[in-house]
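Researcher: I'm preparing a figure for a lab meeting and need a structural model of a single chain. I don't have an experimental structure, so a prediction will have to do for now. The sequence is pasted below. Please return the structure as tokens so I can convert it later.
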Amino acid sequence: MALPQDELDAIAARSADPAAAAVAMARLRESASEDLTRRLDANGGLVQAICVVMASSEFLAEAMVHSPELALGLDEERRRPSSRAREDWAATLAALAAAAGPSAAEREHALAGFKRREYLRIAWRDLSGQAELGETTQDLSHLADAILQQNFAWAWNDLASRYGTPRLAGGAPAEFAVIGLGKLGAEELNYSSDIDLMFLHAGDGETAGGAATLGNREFFTRLAQAVTAYASTTYRVDLRLRPGGREGELVHGLQAAVAYYRTQARGWEHQMLIRARGCAGSRGLAAQFIEQVREMVYPAAPSEQVLAEGVRESRARISAQLARRRSLGRRTAAVDVKLDPGGIRDIEFLAQFLQRLRGGHAPWLRSGSTLVGLQRLYDKGQLPMGEWQQLAAAYTLLRHVEHRLQLRMGQQTHALPTGAERREVLARSLEAVLPNRHGAMTGAELEHEVRKRMDGALRIYRKYLEPPHLATDSPLDAPILRSHAGEQPAPSDWPAHARTQWDRLWRSAATQELGREQLESLGAEARRRLRIALGASDWMAEALIRSPALTEALEHAGDCPLQVEVADLERSMAELRKWRMRRTLWLLIEEWERRKPVGKALGDHTRTAEDVLRAALRLVPQAPNSLAVLALGRMGLGELDLQSDLDLVFVSELDETEVAARASAKLIQVLTAYTQAGALYAVDTRLRPRGREGELVLTPAGLAQHFRGHGDVWEGVSYLKARYVAGNEQTARAALDGVRAACVERFAGKALGAELAALRARIENEGRPGRWGLKTGPGGYYDSDLLASRRWLEAGLCPPIGQGLAASVSALPEALLPRAIGRELGDLVELLRASDHALRVATGFAGHRVPAAGAAVERGWDWLARTTGRPRSQVGAGLVDRARGRVREIFRSVE
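Model: Understood. Here is the structure written out token by token.
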């Protein structure tokens, strides 16, 4: 039975452009197949999804009218409202490539159809509010990556079949990399962006194994030409950012490219390499290039004046080009959200300037993503909170507007419409993504908001990049600024550091609705805990300053239930982040108040991560029943700390590995998605067999087989810590039993000392242990880990699952390690763990980023003294150095 006409009218009326949606839907019905007609008649959800897209995108509406099968595809995709995993791209394109004919025309037709289908899916998620800005730009970028990779594969295979494979002078294979620059490199692609590319090859030599021989340079030039030709059928390809620009060679050898950036490149060329990323071909070669030019991108001793002058020169060229275009009538006087002062480009330039200025000594600031870069600049104190919030909000709004403008006709445009009707449609199309609004803006309100945001961004840009005598009045409308009450000092009996942090928190609260009212309403107990948080822990202070609403966690025990709803993914992801931060804050306060031992404290943080992981898994659509998640590393030991990665391995039954891989990729995305609220956890899956090159999901039998035939001793050490944490416990148990049995079979009775000593030396030489070296430095707890692991493996035994490192060392049988030595080593490990934890809590840093001295480190020793019960006079650098010295002494004595 067909949907009633009044219901169809109501669906169209809720769209951004009801008239356009109704007309396009009528045309689609005329060309629809019987299958599609039945679905349209029976499924109001599908009709609504199609109307959402047709109302905002004329070029996608036309695509559906001319290819109704696209609407059928949307019906399937909307049931899986999530970003596509990288594995999905590869699998889908592999099937497409196999089905496409050998001619270039057939291949191009297949890729064009694939791109249209994926654009429709991405646009629907964007327009309906299913995807955040970062997800949309990442999906668009990963789609381009996938198409480029397929282009590369076709071009490489065609050339290699005739000329053989290129080799370096010594006979090693010569690789080729496609480097993405600009928005593609930053994973911030628009719907109608150019893709900026650079081509690199490994070096000179010639091909071998073909009917004819070519020199590497000629082979790779032909390869670059073929990749460009394929890519140009689906994207506008821009090669002007390569070394030498239009006059430069099409493809460069690695060393020649590095030499160019060291000796000839201009400042703006170094700046644009912030966004360089391997998109196709050899990721290893791309990584070598990026590493070798890093010192030019992030100079160790930057000149602020030189860097600023380079940005100003780029801005001047943009302004001159924009003025010329407008004088020729190619642009109207409408606001250009990308190129006008205070627009997208200025915000990007400002973020890149600050990253280059500080990134030489602070690697964590380096990111091709503008929003992530701004977030990290704020996190490390390089941007005040108010400026970070203004820039992030402006950039997010302007990019959403840019997307809507480009979706309309599929054209590369950035100017607000001049017609009132079109402005109204644009405003309505943004309703799903505008925060804190009920209903759409009017067109006039949207233009005012855009101008206000750009005006604020311009002021911040000028503060950092324009000398005072060059500053001029803004050409945009004056902004509406929110005023707040004056400062409220912290209680006079608070320590000086707590009072300073309070001032920052008070200013931050002023930027949020009812923020200061919430601080003023805190009860006496909550204020006492707030003093602890602000005075003792920079980690807690920064968390509260970033989100003052978290002060509610100080009012009561952090035992509120964690509730997520599969039907509302975005809201549930936000709830996960909020719950995790509330819970962590409460645990740290509780640790201070109850003088909690480090083993209990880290166990509580581990259980928090487990709860989040299991809740996140419930959010993954169509996760197979047999999927299980294993934890290794610190989570496997039950000793997860602040800023620890989750080392995860995924297993499932054989017949479900494909769907399990998609589910696992989605789970990783839920855990790692970086928003203004931060990410939940960093996830590391490199400990699976064959690391990044291996399958994401393995079977229990396959995992065991790997250890029986190929597992190295370092893998055995890692998998001694493996533990079930989520999903199907029966699958996990089979995997753990199989791995442990295989480790016993492979390593029992063997002398592993020399191999593990070499591994330990490599970790010391290659790592960055920092001043304290608590983990990887000489005498760090890696010494104890490898010592205990060696004893367990050589004896054909495995430690109890989930036992902490100190307990694992202490539990070694007398025959494997003298009991007195085991107890002493266990105590030393516990002290090092407690020291590491205290420094993380107090400074907000981990590993080599923990400072060698300073007030924050002293607060770390205060935390250690309180939680271990040691006199403060006995806690400090000397205690840690003596502990590490004794650990190293024991490690060497039993090697």
